[in-house]
Amino acid sequence: MPIFIVIIFSRYLATGCSLAELHFTFRVGKSTASQIVREVTGEIWSVLSEKEIPPLNPDLFLEIAQGFQDSTDFPHCIVVLDGKHIRLVQPENSGSLFYNYKKKFSIVLLAMCDADYKFTYIDVGSYGKSSNSGIFKNSALYDQLSKGSLDIPAASPLEGGKLFPYVILADQGFAMSENLIRPYGGKGLSDEKIFSITESPGQGGALNVHLG
């Protein structure tokens, strides 16, 4: 890769400057600067993605579940799922697409992590006005989960002997399903309240990772 391209991309990555600034600083067209940024980020992703975020599979899910069991005493949790708004300057001619509920402009990072705070899945770039649940329902992850093709291990007995599915742990912005659960949000049975208290240590892991 030519050193000139590396220099332009490094400047963009280090400062977050605009394409117009790259245009004036390095005397390249805006379209050329945009192409450089896209191509280099694409190359980085193609080289590092499978190493840093390995494909999900049953063995990996079981390993993650054991990690949550050891660190939080929460059984059968295969990942924690949540979203994070990443602030940005409003793009030109974007209207309210990037305007979020906090009255800021942003894109959204939807991510899953394991018990060691490592990402196991990311979906980044959705408009700031979009909700976590809406982004999730339009993701490849949701498609796999709803079709049963995510390679989640089959339900297995807990210590009490009852079969229990392996689950994704999320917050109340996500709809529950057989393999996705969230904290109990209302008033009701004491067992449900105890369940929410038990659930919170595991969910804290995701908050520490990408909501801090």
UniProtKB/TrEMBL annotation:
Its cofactor is a divalent metal cation. It is found in: Nucleus. GO terms for cellular component: nucleus. Its main location: nucleus. It comes from the Eukaryota. Residues 81-191 form the DDE Tnp4 domain. Pfam families: DDE_Tnp_4. Keywords: Hydrolase, Metal-binding, Nuclease, Nucleus, Signal. InterPro entries: HARBI1-like (IPR045249), HARBI1_dom (IPR027806). Residues 1-16 form the signal peptide. One of its GO terms (molecular function) is metal ion binding. Belongs to the HARBI1 family. This is DDE Tnp4 domain-containing protein. It comes from Araneus ventricosus.
